[in-house]
Specification:
DUF397; 62 residues; DUF397 domain-containing protein; flat
């Protein structure tokens, strides 16, 4: 795969990171940076944008 994975800006220095990438198939992939060989969670671009919008709006605060 030729996609480029990006670490969350909220990642901890201890290496507990979430990474995201726009995959060759056109979907968004989310993975644990400590386990890059495991299959990522896959979301359509619209699903990913809806999730990010909800987080930014505070709708998922727990």
């Amino acid at each position: 795969m030729s996609e480029e994975w990006y670490k969350s800006s909220y990642s901890k220095a201890s290496g507990e990171c979430v990474e995201a990438a726009q995959l060759v198939s056109g979907v968004c992939g989310i993975r644990d940076s400590k386990a890059p060989a495991q299959a990522p969670l896959l979301f359509s671009v619209s699903e990913w944008h809806a999730f990010i919008s909800s987080v930014k709006a505070g709708h998922l605060a727990g």
